[in-house]
Amino acid sequence: MAGKDVATMKISPKVWKNGQIIDWDDARIHVMSHVVNYGSSVFEGIRCYNTVDGPAVFRLTEHIQRLLNSAKIYRMDSGFTRPDIIDGTLELLRQSNLDECYIRPLILRGLDENKPAFGVNPFGIPIDTYVATWQWGKYLGEEALETGIDVCVSSWTRITSNSMPAMAKAGANYMNSQLIKMEAILGGFSEGIALDDRGYVSEGSGENIFLVNNGKLITPPLGASILPGITRDSVIQIAKELGIEVLETTIQRSALYLADELFFTGTAAEITPIRAVDHITVGAGKRGPITEKLQEEFFKVIRGERPAPAGANWLTYVKDTGEKKTAVA
Ligand code: PMP
Description:
Layout: E1 4-6, E2 9-11, E3 14-17, E4 20-23, H1 34-38, E5 41-43, E6 46-51, E7 54-58, H2 60-73, H3 82-96, E8 101-109, E9 127-134, H4 144-147, E10 149-157, H5 173-186, E11 191-195, E12 201-204, E13 208-213, E14 216-219, H6 230-241, E15 246-248, H7 253-258, E16 261-266, E17 270-277, E18 280-281, H8 289-302, E19 315-317, E20 327-328
Helix pairs in contact: 2-3
The structure holds 4'-deoxy-4'-aminopyridoxal-5'-phosphate.
The site of 4'-deoxy-4'-aminopyridoxal-5'-phosphate has 14 residues, from α6 and β16.
């Protein structure tokens, strides 16, 4: 079944909800749901790639663990374990037939229509868990991976860990991301880089950032109000395997301008070079050699053409495992 085709985007006709596969059109919530009014959701963004051995999800276990970590911070107990959500995701993918796709697990506070509650207090509000999937091309554009993008430093400060913990991937964090992204787009840039509340480099609206200086990789530490990116971790591990030194340390805004190379990492953005910041050309103004090497190795890993560093298992194959735990509604 092909699913909905919005322009060139194919969307799965099915959604996993609380342990069951339901139709896309039935995956709806009430406008007075807690999440709509108070932003109470946590979510993930995951990619499934066509590998030499068929479709496989990249670092599925780590993504679902981060989802559960985000939910834990916000005291949201979905009632589903990591294996439950992993199995549900794989079952959804088998029923979706999309090959390469983006996967969006989501845990949210809904509405008990028999016992509605409209206040901020989240206790007692029902929690629903969903997984949706669709085909999504290159987030920052196909040619961006080669030519690089133009970005700006945002006038907006990244959320701070004692107000909105960046460590949790919460829907509400993306109000801050939207301010950063809108300002960038209106200024003619593809993306914005936020500084943290101390003025150090934090991250993009939906990406982590890396500098290359004298052959070394430098990236902000988790303390700079960043999401602990799974692509960030993958790049760090690949770099170390290649013998490239990696420093996680505070970075001043002006160091962005003086870097030899600069790139974003993220599930959607993958490894996207940055060619200019605030109209100041970075390095040679195009993808640098270390960025290119890291991209090359990363793309080999995600396509199953070479093993992950240190023999880790980063690919979960979608092919039928026989047993199906998820009921079809
Ligand atoms: N930071 C933010 C704010 C993000 O939204 C994302 C995308 N999930 C990232 C960093 C990169 O994380 P990952 O590599 O796990 O996708």
